[in-house]
Amino acid sequence: MPILRFAIFRFATMLMTLVVVSALVFFIMNLPPGDYLSNLIAELRATGQESGVAKVEFLRKEYSLDQPLWRQYLIWVGFYPGPHGFSGILQGDFGWSFEFDKPVSEIVGTALWMTVLVNVAAILFVYMVALPLGVLAAAKSKTWVDYTSAFVGYLGLATPNFLLALILFYYGHRYFNLPIGGLMAPEFEGEPMSAAKVKSVLIHLIIPTFVIGTSGAAAMMQRLRANLLDELSKPYVDTARAKGVGPVKAILKYPLRVAFNPFVADIGNLLPSLISGSVLVSVVLGLQTIGPALLTALKTQDQFLAGFILLFVAGLTLIGTMVSDVLLMLLDPRIKYGGRDR
Amino acid sequence: MNSHEKPLLQVRDLAIGFGSADPIIRNINFDVQRGETVALVGESGSGKTQTCRAVLRILPKAARIHSGSAYLNSDSGGIDLLAMSEKELREIRGDRISMIFQEPMHSLSPLHKIGDQVSEVLILHRDHNKRSAKEIVLQKFERVGFPDPERVFRSYPFELSGGMRQRAMIAMAMVAKPDLLIADEPTTALDVTTQAQVLGLIKDLQRETGMAVILVTHDLGVVANCADKVVVMRDGKIMESGRVSNVLDDPGHAYTRKLIAAAPNIPHEAEPTSARVIEDPILQLENISKSFDLRGGGFMRKGGIIKAVEGVNLTVARGKTFAIVGESGSGKSTVAQIALGARSPDAGGVIKYWPDSGDSAVEVQKLSGDAKRSFQRQAQMVFQDPFSSLSPRMQVIDILTEPLEIHEIGTRSERKDRAIELLEQVDLDPTMLRRFPHAFSGGQRQRLSIARALALKPNLLVCDEPTSALDLSVQMQVLDLLEEIRDNLGLSYLFISHDLAVVARIADEVAVMRRGQIIEQAAPDVLFTAPKHPYTKALIAACLEPDTTQKIDLEAVALGAGNPKTWPEQFRFNGLTAPDLVETEPGHFVRVEL
Description:
A: mainly alpha; two-stranded antiparallel ribbon; B: alpha/beta; Rossmann fold; 3 domains; 22 strands
């Protein structure tokens, strides 16, 4: 089973990449002078609250911020024992957020899953919109169908997301009675899952998905159109027609399969751009994703919170790339049997 | 039985144009009888391909059929293919009329199994399901000569060679037993021996099923050997048509005569030769081998080693042309790259280069830095495809002066003067300096790439198939030009080609390569008239000449070339090793056991 061996191999490289990414994230975050606690101490001293300093010094020890940077990193990941033994990300301890004065896991808990939910919904939206429109634009290239879809696509690309969000909120609420802001009605927050809660979340998802997905869908559609147009002029399409294959099948069965490769390969690239793009949107729309938390954490050098979120996004990206690599392998025999090509 | 007196296909007053312009293909009339082969012949741009495609209306998007009819007659009466709806025509395509295209590399979908692509015809037209279609397809595969039909059924196109893919295409076209097969340059992209096999196969199948064939080709040799009738086209019009023997042996139209004259010939009569001792060599390859690592079947698993070139020795004499002929995969292009220093040979190989007669030799594979740059200036390359070897975004002047800029030669105005001089050397109008390549024809582009190769005043030109992308009449002009500049500028050529006729015309010494080894080497007169090695003999026999009196036995040729087991005893391989290359007569080297 070459595919299984490939998947295992890809998974192993993914883990190694993740380790490298975690190191990069950690060290880059520590590049600017100072850290959250030393800033706090300076502030406490300046305002004469010497009593608070002792607590901060305690936190410093507790989270090994008095150690050299490389050891801090190893303790953070969980490769090296901290003051309380091995207790890093590997062991499930994500650290302490100084800004919110809570464990990181408590802050990001549900937000993580909401982020995944919003972005997966956005990706599905991107593919569901881009696939039919891209194929249609290529099949009817240089007709009004093509021009209209290109125009709408560029509009989607060019409109700032937050503006689109505000416009949609206004009209969505006015004509369809869609809710404004949030990812669920306030009464469900903190409640256990129920049918009513799921329904509320789904209704709240409509506008964010649309806002976050539009530009990605527009770009993806144009890419698919261009790829498919290239393929449509290939001789094997003539072969299919000369066989008596109908026009729809002659596009969907043969050239689309080939044009599909970049489409699939983009899954990995799409995730990070969607997530970073959705940070601002989340703030504007008041979505309880990790976006707003990430923004605050980065501003205040809240290193454990920011570090964990960045690592999480990197992990999602790597999973996306791995999924697309494995899918490509399944889709394209030339990749599977690469060595035999001439 | 009235309908049987009518031809199978009657094309009348066909006119095709592009966009809204006037039709460029006009007044096309021809008939195809049941079971006969009609060849459409012409150079590129003659409209032969669009004409044959118009029958099934598989034309480029911009093309439009202005007028005309194409009646397909059967027992139940005739139907006009050009007046049918697209939906009705789909019932005809692949069923009663099928098509084979030129590019076997690209005319099968790369992502679908060959068996499924062929079965599709039966599923579309014959109400077969996958399983029942497979049985018939497997029989067809066996019929077209696949030794292991099951394996081919499961294969993807990239796993097969060009000839094998074209066989699969033929199987696809034949599987529904059509009345008419339209073959658009079916063998142009193939080696001569493979060409013979494919043409032989089409003829056989034709005899079996009684189908008619429209054969589109630029090669009069193919016409002479395969067709019953011929239609000669030029610039969208029919120049002449009739029975092949009449047209080729007694051409009525001046253009046909010109085409026949331009077809290169292999000499049939030997001239007395003597052994040549090369006193003034310019390039010498000694013991050149090149191996490549193969990636194996699975992921990250290393396969074996493939020897692209094995123990090649050759010497290019100053001012002469040394030609290497061989089929695709013979390693001839790899030798060219090694000769230019663009690839390094395996350890033990030596490339000697003498900049001027009397100089001491430099060893190219050891050069580096300035010495290497100096060698690169003196040895230049002319590429095969004039359409992709010139950047479409550069003006002629930039194309010609770029090598000078890279090597920092001359001032701007000196470079411009040189560019004008170069254009004159290759017989192009110097006022064309500011044009882009797309404004030139194929032959003119090849002149441009020759001019570019001459820019640095080289001593040695390596020409890799410089004429194989060109029309016959243009091919002759380019060969003339190459000979002229070789003699005027005192150049030496290493000339790579698969075309024996071209080589016979230009070479002073010819080496035949097969699977990385030189198997025979001699002066062209000797090699083409008194070949010794069975492979060389098969190669020569497989060249189709525009002479209806000398039809060749396509199947015998196909059998003779490929398999060393069918060779006479003294030429055979001993296990995996071929016999050594020995001088059987002065100047004539053959791999043979004496």
